[in-house]
Write a structure and sequence with these properties.
53% of the residues lie in helices and 12% in strands. It has 729 residues and is an alpha/beta fold.
């Protein structure tokens, strides 16, 4: 038997992580785990549905699953015959009950179960709240409380726009549980008059600069040397290039240099360091006041519309589990979850980990009962740091819980050429990179085109049109860095070849899937009785001759307050289901709303990504971020001019346990005066470079048959990868 109780699986792109998760789930059942005690958490509904379908398919069609059954046999030590009999005997149980859900849904279930104890309405809907809605509600809320002036004054004092302040508030909200102790300390020590102190420090800085200038003049320094410290105010002074030096012992001051002069220079820099520290304190005190109002405005949205953001749901679930008065909650969870599987662990946030940590610890520390913990991830695909994902959690968890670690090295997605290209590129970029072996027999194709900035769009179009001579338009995907670039590419292609169907990110929504279009048209007919909608549904299905079953529609209209039942009846009646993950997602959404009308509004108001991208016809043009989890036969990646990313307004410094030690406010030039801040800033730059590298990895591993890179000759973002820097067409 090869079963490992606590296992961390490093699964590079295309190595079959869904397959491994499914094998693990079934192996646990065969080894005696009760199905109600096995929980699998994923990060997307697509991954949830894929895993459910894979497991059910093994139980329903074991005769076609020899490879899976062999793997289960190796994992469990059971004979093939035993496993086949087990699958047959337990098929009905699996079709009814599988605890496989997204981590957001899991957090929601905790909050809803214990809503009364944590002070929320259990009928809430977890949902993304748009930035525009957050901003509008916040401004209305401040106006109602007559506090708009505070925001305006703060914006003027800090030199930040309202949108920039909103970004700060969202960052704090996302990291709220991580930074709460740091901010609590600021609030506790918030009685001193910082503004008066700041004025004193500014005056002292200007005095020290004037003294230095005068002394340089008295020593016979050049006009340039004297003027280096002459300024009307501190803002002007901070622009002086001399302040970037660590000492005055260089050419401009060589003739008049002394240690005494340097001592005064370093004192000036130390005073400026203190100035930034005070400026940071003012910022945090103001932003914390606004954050309290921001949180209250989100509660208003929740109260009015019954919506709580996914981020807030995680915070509430963490609060529930962390609360010592709710020991019975942990007891109940512990009695249910004895085997935990987590997919895409590199995307886990600190709050999500802390929410799950008591469960994990109860599993790994249990010695008298069969329990297990299993994580799958790939740090190279960690591209959601901006949403709170922390790829370092993977290694931290492995070390903390002494988990065994394994690496998958067989790629089942891509052709030989694509896999070899990925190996050659990324073995130079990642320490400990696992070389992949291609399992596909076809050779595949790699193309690299170097172009000038002005020619990039034309080159992409020509390359795509040439590829269309050999393949169908449905087999092509163009990946861009931004939505704007995707839209522009769509416009250019449509202008030159209007007969081609081209879809962008905006079209790759679940409501654009053909099966879902049919379902929605039928639902609209159900409500309105407008025959236009039923005609539309049949047209999409390609049915020209049909009769409307009025009795059926009258019957389901009476079930309008049970939208999930209505949806299932329509799917069965019109034979829409064929292992369609998009329809499964609609059923899931329908089970959480109160009417067909509300279901239609939910789908209209929320950008829910399509699960089967193949279900949308045409050339797909999507951003690299949105391409994660998808695969396409022929991929074209479009380059972008490289420029350094902006430094975030807030920088978080972590300790070895991945807890926040300190939050820093970034100010331009602060690194010249504060070595500690400089180290944190450099750390952020390294993380930004890694984010970019990971994004390149995700994009290049979407390709099945062919991969084409359209790259810039100069200032290329793609060719920052070392193996591509000296490459030619």
């Amino acid at each position: 038997m090869n079963f490992i109780r606590n296992l961390a699986l490093n699964a590079s792109a295309g190595t079959g992580k869904t397959f491994r998760l499914s094998i693990r789930f079934i192996s646990l059942m065969i080894l005696g785990a009760r199905i109600e005690n096995i929980y699998a958490l994923t990060f997307t509904n697509k991954a949830t549905d894929e895993m459910k379908d894979r497991i059910k398919d093994i139980f329903v069609n074991p005769q076609d699953k020899k490879n899976e059954i062999n793997m289960i046999s190796i994992e469990t030590g059971k004979s093939i015959e035993y496993i086949e009999e087990f699958l047959k005997t337990n098929k009905e149980i699996v079709l009814k009950e599988l605890n496989i859900t997204t981590i957001d849904s899991f957090a929601s279930s905790i909050v809803k179960t214990y809503a009364s104890y944590i002070g929320v309405n259990r009928d809430f809907n977890p949902s993304e709240i748009s930035e525009d809605k957050e901003k509008d509600q916040f401004l209305k809320f401040l106006k109602t409380k007559e506090k708009t002036k505070e925001l305006v004054v703060y914006a003027n004092e800090s030199g930040r726009s309202v949108d920039e302040i909103m970004d700060d508030l969202r960052t704090i909200h996302e990291k709220e549980k991580e930074v709460e102790l740091f901010f609590a300390d600021i609030i506790m020590n918030g009685n001193d008059d910082i503004k008066t102190t700041m004025i004193d420090v500014e005056m002292e800085i200007m005095r020290e600069a004037a003294v230095l200038s005068e002394e340089i003049k008295n020593r016979g320094g050049s006009k340039t040397a004297v003027n280096s410290f002459v300024a009307k105010n501190i803002k002007e002074l901070l622009k002086k290039s001399v302040l970037s030096k660590e000492s005055l012992n260089y050419t401009t001051y060589k003739k008049i240099y002394s240690e005494d002069l340097d001592f005064k220079f370093l004192n000036l820099k130390e005073s400026i360091k203190q100035y930034f520290e005070l400026k940071e304190k003012v910022f945090f005190r103001n932003v914390i006041k606004l954050f309290i109002e921001f949180k209250d405005s989100l509660k208003e949205i929740s109260k009015k519309e019954g919506i709580i953001s996914f981020n807030e749901v995680s915070n509430l679930a963490y609060n529930a589990i962390e609360n010592n008065d709710l020991d019975f909650l942990l007891f109940q969870i512990d009695s249910k979850i004895k085997h935990l599987l987590i997919d895409e662990f590199q995307d886990t946030s600190w709050v999500q980990y802390k929410m799950l940590s008591p469960i994990i610890e109860n599993i790994v520390n249990e010695e008298n009962e069969f329990r297990s913990f299993f994580i799958v991830g790939d740090k190279k695909q960690s591209i959601y740091r901006f949403r709170g994902g922390n790829q370092n959690l993977f290694d931290y968890i492995v070390k903390k819980y002494n988990m065994e670690e394994k690496f998958l090295d067989k790629n089942f997605r891509s052709s030989k050429a694509v896999v070899e290209f990925q190996n050659n590129i990324f073995k130079e970029e990642y320490d400990g990179f696992t070389i992949q072996e291609a399992k596909k027999d076809d050779d595949g194709e790699i193309n690299i085109k170097l172009v000038e900035q002005k020619d990039i769009e034309q080159t992409v179009v020509e390359a795509v049109f040439k590829k269309l001579e050999d393949v169908n338009e449905n087999d092509i995907a163009i990946l861009t860095f931004t939505n704007d670039e995707a839209v522009k590419m769509q416009e250019i292609i449509k202008e030159k070849r209007p007969e081609l169907k081209v879809v962008t990110d905006n079209h790759l929504k679940i409501t654009e899937a053909n099966s879902v279009k049919v379902l929605l048209s039928i639902l609209k007919y159900t409500i309105t009785k407008e025959e236009f909608y039923i005609n539309e549904a049949y047209a999409i299905m390609g049915v020209l001759d049909f009769e409307i079953d009025h009795d059926f529609f009258e019957a389901i209209r009476k079930l309008g307050n049970k939208p999930d039942i209505v949806v299932k009846l329509i799917i069965n009646k019109f034979r829409l289901f064929n292992n369609d993950c998009n329809l499964l997602k609609i059923v899931e959404i329908a089970s959480s709303v109160i009417s067909i009308e509300f279901l239609l509004k939910t789908l209209e108001d929320n950008d829910i990504n399509i699960i089967n991208s193949e279900d949308v016809d045409g050339i797909k043009i999507i951003t690299m971020h949105k391409s994660k989890g998808l695969e396409f036969k022929n991929v074209f990646i479009v380059d972008k001019l490289y420029k350094k990313q902006n430094v975030p307004s807030l920088l978080l410094e972590y300790n070895k346990d991945l807890e926040v030690n300190k939050v820093w406010k970034s100010f331009s030039g602060r690194e010249l005066f504060d070595y500690h801040y400089k180290r944190v800033l450099n750390d952020e730059r390294v993380k930004q470079d890694l984010d970019d590298k990971n994004l390149m990895y995700v994009a290049m591993t979407r390709a099945e048959d062919s991969l084409t890179l359209i790259t810039l000759r100069e200032k290329s973002r793609i060719r920052r990868l070392s193996m591509l820097q000296n490459i030619e067409n």
